[in-house]
Design a protein that fits this description.
Blueprint: H1 3-20, E1 42-50, E2 53-64, E3 83-89, H2 93-97, E4 101-106, E5 115-120, E6 131-137, E7 143-151, E8 158-166, H3 171-180, E9 190-192, E10 204-206
Antiparallel strand pairs: 1-2, 1-4, 3-8, 4-5, 5-6, 6-7, 7-8, 9-10
């Protein structure tokens, strides 16, 4: 792996942790995914289709693994461990994008039918011709990720880097809490709308059912 590829992978890994901080909802209708230990290699493939209808394997990718054997550095006890793989796929990026394909990550070789993260391949290319896509969580696996595809100099192959890491609380936990706790009606005003990330949305306050603040027509004076 040359210096340019190493720098690119480091950049993609940094972007991964920005993604996993927010999490995403499950998008695959199967039973709950069993857990595999963190040091279990996770198979991954390029498939035909989309993440709602994953098709045949087009190209196998190297198994995703966590770091082993190296020194523990920095905030090792607090950091969210990621799992990574890199594969030189003997297909051009143009050929991969010419039809519908996905990258799909499996729980383990023993549980190959359990899918944990998937992403459709497409979107806007970077200036250097590479493509980065997100991998969304499947089966409440607790994992999301990023795939980075970079065309080789000759164009006949593609470097495929895949990163996954645990979903880190945030929106996912709040969404589940909201589903479990219905809003009370009749006791408080109901707030409609919520601010977006970068600007405040208009928020209107509606009186609750039975509230004395409801609009009441006023009879005209008979003077």
């Amino acid at each position: 792996m040359n210096i340019k590829t190493s720098v690119t992978l480091a950049t993609s890994a940094s972007a991964l942790f920005a993604l996993v901080a927010f999490g995403s909802p499950a998008a695959w209708a199967q039973d709950g995914t069993p857990e595999a230990s963190g040091d279990t290699p996770r198979p991954a493939h390029i498939h035909t289709g989309n993440c709602d209808d994953i098709g045949e394997v087009v190209a196998p990718l190297s198994d995703l693994t966590g770091a082993t054997g190296g020194d523990r550095v920095g905030q090792a006890r607090r950091a969210a461990a990621a799992e990574i793989s890199y594969t030189a796929v003997p297909l051009s990026l143009a050929a991969i994008l010419d039809a519908d394909h996905v990258i799909n990550v499996h729980l383990s070789a023993d549980q190959i039918d359990s899918y944990i993260a998937c992403g459709e391949l497409g979107g806007r290319l970077n200036a250097d011709g590479s493509l980065a896509v997100g991998l969304r969580e499947l089966n409440d696996s607790g994992y999301v990720g990023i795939a980075y595809l970079s065309p080789a100099a000759g164009g006949g192959s593609t470097g495929v880097s895949v990163f996954i890491a645990p979903v880190l609380g945030g929106n996912r936990n709040r969404d589940r809490a909201a589903e479990a706790t219905p809003a009370a009606v009749g006791s408080e005003d109901i707030i409609v709308g919520e601010p977006s990330d970068d600007s405040e949305a208009d928020i209107s306050t509606l009186p609750a059912s039975g509230s004395s603040s409801s609009a009441t027509p006023v009879a005209a004076s008979g003077g």
